[in-house]
C-alpha cells in the first residue's frame, strides 16, 4: 500500500477559506459503501437520511486559542509559540519559531507582560517544554491574548473565532477543531433528537499531528501521533444499547471514530468506559468494531484521514467520491463541505 495510492488532484480554489453561514447550509455528499453510489444533499437534510434508533457520536473537545505571539525578553525579537500538550501546572509542550531563539533558559513575554515563559527543555523531535508564569488562571490569560491555531492551508483571517468551535464544544484541550461537527447547529441537534436520533459524546483532543504529512511511501512504515481520549460510561452504555436494538452508531468525524475503535481494542467483546492515549492508525484492511456510519469532511491527499475513510467506505468508492466532489466543486478541508457514509 503506497502513499501515492491516496493522491487526488485538488484545484486550489476549492480549499475553503471561511465557513458557510449558517452552519447547516454546507453541502453533503452521500456515499453508499456497499454499492459506491454517490448523491448530493445539503447538511440540513441529514435527518431524512437517518433512522429513529440511530446514534450520533460527537467529539466535545474545545480548541485552545493556542497560538501565542510575543518577544524575547531583553532583545525584543519576535517569537511564536503553538501549544501542543500540557505537562503540568502551567507547563506545556510547544512548537516555536524561530527555533534558534528557543534554547533552554531563554525567556519570552506575551501580551505586554500578562504572560511570560521560560524554555526548560528541547525534545528529540524539536518540540520544547516551557514553563509559563502569570497572575491567576493560565486559561483566562490564554483566552485573552491567544489566537486560534487555524490550519496552514487557511490563509484568510477568521472574523469570529467561535466558528472554529463546534456548538457543543466543552472540554478544552485541542490544537485543531474536530471539523465534521462544525456543520451542526443547536436547533438541528434538537430536531434530530425529536425524531428519535440519539446523540452521545466522547472527547479526543486533536493534536497538530493531524496536519503532518505522511512522509513514507510505504504506508505501513508511517508512525502515528498520539492523542488523549475519553469514552465516558454513559456514552459506552448508549452505544451498547443502540447496537443491541439494531440501531446504527454513526461517528461525527474521524476523531470520534478513532476514539470508539481505540476503546473497542482495549475493552474486548463489550465496549466499556476508558481513557488514555491512542495512536491508532486505520487504513484499508482494518475491521471496524463499533462504527456503522461516518460524517466527515474532505481530507488532504495522501493523509492518514483519507486512508481511514478508504478503510471504511472502500478504497475505490472513496477515490471515486473524491473525484466527484472535485467535479461538483465541493468545498474542501476544515471549513469545507462534508460526506455522509452509510
Describe this structure in words.
With 342 residues, this protein is α/β, with parallel strands linked by helices. The protein has two domains: 3-63 and 160-341, QueA-like (3-Layer(aba) Sandwich); 67-145, QueA-like (Thrombin, subunit H, Beta Barrel). It has six helices and 17 strands. A nine-stranded mixed sheet has the order 2-1-17-16-14-3-12-13-15. The longest helix has 14 residues, at 254-267. The mean pLDDT is 95.
Q: Which helices and strands, and how do they pair?
A:
Blueprint: E1 27-31, E2 38-42, E3 55-59, E4 61-63, E5 67-72, E6 78-88, E7 91-97, E8 107-110, E9 115-122, E10 128-133, H1 138-145, E11 171-174, H2 186-194, E12 198-204, E13 227-231, H3 233-244, E14 249-252, H4 254-267, E15 274-278, E16 293-297, H5 304-313, H6 315-327, E17 338-341
Parallel strand pairs: 1-17, 3-12, 3-14, 4-11, 14-16
Antiparallel strand pairs: 1-2, 5-6, 5-8, 6-7, 7-10, 8-9, 9-10, 12-13, 13-15, 16-17
What is the CATH topology descriptor of the largest domain? QueA-like
CATH superfamily of the largest domain: QueA-like
Main sheet strand line-up: 2-1-17-16-14-3-12-13-15
Q: What fraction of the residues are assigned to beta strands by DSSP?
A: 25-35%
What's the helical proportion of residues? 10-25%
The mean pLDDT is 95
What's the alpha carbon Rg, rounded to whole Å?
21 Å
Terminal residue distance: 25 Å
Q: What is the succession of H and E elements?
A: EEEEEEEEEEHEHEEHEHEEHHE
The major beta sheet can be summarized as: 9 strands, mixed
* Count of separate DSSP helical elements: 6
- Count of folded domains: 2
Amino acid at each position: 500500500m503506497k502513499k501515492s495510492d491516496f493522491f487526488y488532484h485538488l484545484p486550489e480554489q476549492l480549499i475553503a477559506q471561511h465557513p458557510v453561514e449558517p452552519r447547516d447550509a454546507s453541502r453533503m455528499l452521500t456515499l453508499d459503501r456497499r454499492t459506491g453510489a454517490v448523491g448530493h444533499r445539503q447538511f440540513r437534510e441529514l435527518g431524512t437520511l437517518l433512522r429513529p434508533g440511530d446514534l450520533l457520536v460527537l467529539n466535545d473537545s474545545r480548541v485552545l486559542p493556542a497560538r501565542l505571539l510575543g518577544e524575547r525578553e531583553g532583545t525584543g525579537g519576535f517569537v511564536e509559540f503553538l501549544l501542543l500538550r500540557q505537562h503540568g501546572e502551567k507547563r506545556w509542550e510547544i512548537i516555536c519559531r524561530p527555533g534558534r531563539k528557543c534554547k533552554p533558559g531563554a525567556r519570552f513575554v506575551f501580551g505586554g507582560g500578562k504572560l511570560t515563559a521560560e524554555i526548560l527543555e528541547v525534545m528529540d523531535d524539536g518540540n520544547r517544554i516551557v514553563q509559563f508564569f502569570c497572575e491567576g488562571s493560565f486559561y483566562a490569560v490564554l483566552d485573552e491574548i491567544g489566537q486560534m491555531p487555524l490550519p496552514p492551508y487557511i490563509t484568510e483571517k477568521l472574523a469570529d473565532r467561535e466558528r472554529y468551535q463546534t456548538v457543543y464544544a466543552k472540554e478544552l484541550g485541542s490544537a485543531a477543531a474536530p471539523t465534521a461537527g462544525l456543520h451542526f447547529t443547536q436547533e438541528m441537534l434538537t430536531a434530530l433528537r425529536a425524531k428519535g436520533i440519539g446523540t452521545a459524546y466522547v472527547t479526543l483532543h486533536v493534536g497538530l499531528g493531524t496536519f503532518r504529512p505522511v512522509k513514507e511511501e510505504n504506508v505501513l512504515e508511517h508512525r502515528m501521533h498520539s492523542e488523549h481520549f475519553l469514552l465516558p460510561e454513559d456514552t459506552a452504555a448508549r452505544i451498547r444499547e443502540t447496537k443491541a436494538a439494531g440501531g446504527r452508531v454513526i461517528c461525527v468525524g474521524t476523531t470520534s471514530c478513532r476514539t470508539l475503535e481505540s476503546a473497542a481494542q482495549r475493552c474486548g467483546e463489550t465496549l466499556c468506559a476508558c481513557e488514555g492515549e491512542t495512536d491508532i492508525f486505520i487504513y484499508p484492511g482494518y475491521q471496524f468494531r463499533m462504527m456503522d456510519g461516518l460524517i466527515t469532511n474532505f481530507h488532504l491527499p495522501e493523509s492518514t484521514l483519507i486512508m481511514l475513510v478508504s478503510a471504511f467506505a472502500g478504497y475505490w468508492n472513496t477515490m471515486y467520491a473524491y473525484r466527484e466532489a472535485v467535479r461538483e466543486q465541493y468545498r474542501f478541508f476544515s471549513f469545507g463541505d462534508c460526506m455522509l457514509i452509510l
